[in-house]
Amino acid sequence: MKTQQIFFLICVGLVAWLGFSHGRMTNESVMAASVAATGVAVAAAAEGCPISVQAISIERVEIGTVSETFLVKWATPSVCVTSFRVTLNIRRADGSTRDETQNFAGSARQGLFKLLGKRDDKLTTRATATVNASGLLAAKATQSKALNIVTGAPVGPGTGSNNPTPVPTFSLRGQILNSQTGGPLAGVTLEFETVGSPLRKSSVETNNQGRWTQDGFLVGKQVRITASKRFFVIEPATRTASEGGVVQFSGRPNEIGAPAPTPAAATFSAGGQAKVDNLSQGTQTPLPGATISFKVLNAKPGQANVPGPVTTGKDGKWSQSGFTVGSFTYQATITKSGVTFGFSTANFGSSTGATVGDVGFLGTIPGTPAPAQPFAASGTVNFFSSSQGTATPLAGATITFRLKNPNAGAANVPGSVTTQSNGNWSQSGFTGGVLYIATCTKTGVFFGDVREFNGPIQALDFLGKSK
């Protein structure tokens, strides 16, 4: 049995003896015994602790004038690793070699390596990364990977190209001018970062002509360029590029001690629908072609944005954006030739940025008749006795109704009614503004006339006599 295992067994016995020497085993002694037992198990499996290194990758992420930078990544499924020792060795086209070794914590999974060397056409043709993993109880694992940098394919020992194809790179340049004077702006710092990579390329500054240049960016990689200068506002502050060319910025003075430019205020959108009231039909339809204009009622000049006017669409709807969020009250005004609006303005606002979608308007066209209201008619039917020379109420007579003009459209024609014992009758549901004809009939009685009416009436009477 190994020394470590013997040591842990002694610990187990000692803890057990201490616990039972007082007639009982405390919780602490049980825990200590458990830890010691676990230590024995780990010691017994020291050689089998699952430490391994997998999936090593090597990528050249920068080519400088006197150096190359590589990104090495690795993976491990083991929880036993406490540290990594990574060595990157490169072989250049001229036969020279360079290497660098770095130590990383057990949680690390990547590292940047910058190796010095002349650029020209003596770039690296082969790179070999060796990752050593160390873990609990001195267990170790080592893994290496060689890569043909020119083609990106793994290579065996001793292989590689002595005449590599030049690695494609691109350059960036530009000139920064003072947007107020039009002159060059010197001393602007430009920083470069490869998007999606921890790599940051060395910064440059604009010269007296406001010009700058930087090269060595790998084709296919996106570069983020950030420009800055004290006491100046650079616009825009950041640009991106993925191919060579000119990247332009401009700058303007920012007063010393003055606060930085205020970010653009949050905005919201508003909308609604305009309708026209068809009085003759009692319906409302969309109003297209109406103009909606805006103003703010409670803001100082420049404090709140006022968007331009809009026109309602075929469905009468309108929408506009760019209203400033806050305690501002906006007023919308609607206009359209030939249309009268009972309320031509509507106020709205948003303190949260939520869209306001219920700003509506209702108009009428002058000269449109008011919608007709339903009405009722009533009267009395009497019978005249020529022998007696008197008229008495006639019960059981039938009053029927019809339209004077059969083409009156949707006018309602109520049903017939019968006179009561007192000769009275009544009916409702007649359409206003429509001409009706009322006819009275009863067997054995002659009524010589019909009655016309087009509005409420309470004396629509009939007089009958013997045939």
Task: Describe this entry's structure for a reader.
This protein is mainly β and 467 residues long. Helix content is 8%, strand content 46%. Strands 4-3-6-7-8 form a five-stranded antiparallel beta sheet, with no helix packed on it. Strands 9, 12, 14, 16 and 17 form a five-stranded mixed beta sheet that branches. A hairpin with a 4-residue loop joins strand 7 and strand 8. Helix 1 runs antiparallel to helix 2. The chain is elongated and about 145 Å long. The chain starts with a helix and ends with a strand. The N terminus is likely disordered.
Distance between the termini: 142 Å
Oligomer state equals single chain
Main sheet makeup: 5 strands, antiparallel
Tally of contiguous helical segments: 2
Q: Helical amount among residues, as a percent range?
A: under 10%
Low-pLDDT sequence parts: 1-47, 155-165
Strand order of the largest sheet: 4-3-6-7-8
Give the total of beta strands: 35
